[in-house]
Design goal:
mainly alpha; 76% helix
Length: 139
């Protein structure tokens, strides 16, 4: 189960399209729970993508020591059409966003694995305890 959580969170952050199917396919060779991996990809949805990518940009800019503003206005003025300005902006932000997405993916997978491993251990230990108690009463 913890592998499924980690894989689902990692794939959800890294791959923005068809992440449920991709996580399910990757779960098989990773020997992770396929259903859990598929369900945990649903953390990333149209409501969470804008804050996720903004956080990815901020984290990536901090990691790369990218202190400049997102777009240099003087450099952006060289481009006349809106499409070329948009492509210029994407080009300028792509490095910090990529580094930030990788950091968020690895961090969420690590935290998801640790939390789910602890929760699974607690749940299974509690379940065994109840089972032993029920066997003691039956005997």
């Amino acid at each position: 189960m913890p592998r499924g959580v980690a894989l689902g969170l990692f794939v959800a952050v890294i791959i923005p399209v068809m992440h449920t199917a991709i996580a399910a396919v990757f779960a098989i060779p990773a020997r992770a729970n396929v259903a859990v991996a598929a369900v945990f990809t649903l953390v990333v949805n149209p409501l969470t993508i804008p804050p996720l990518y903004y956080a990815a940009y901020r984290i990536g800019a901090w990691e790369l020591h990218h202190d400049a503003t997102l777009v240099n206005p003087a450099a952006a003025e060289r481009f006349s059409s809106e499409m070329s300005r948009l492509l210029f902006w994407v080009h300028q932000a792509s490095g910090p966003i990529a580094v930030g997405v990788l950091t968020i993916a690895f961090g969420s997978a690590l935290i998801g694995y640790a939390v789910s491993a602890l929760a699974w251990r607690f749940w299974s230990r509690n379940r065994w305890h109840h089972r032993r108690r029920a066997r003691g009463r039956a005997a």
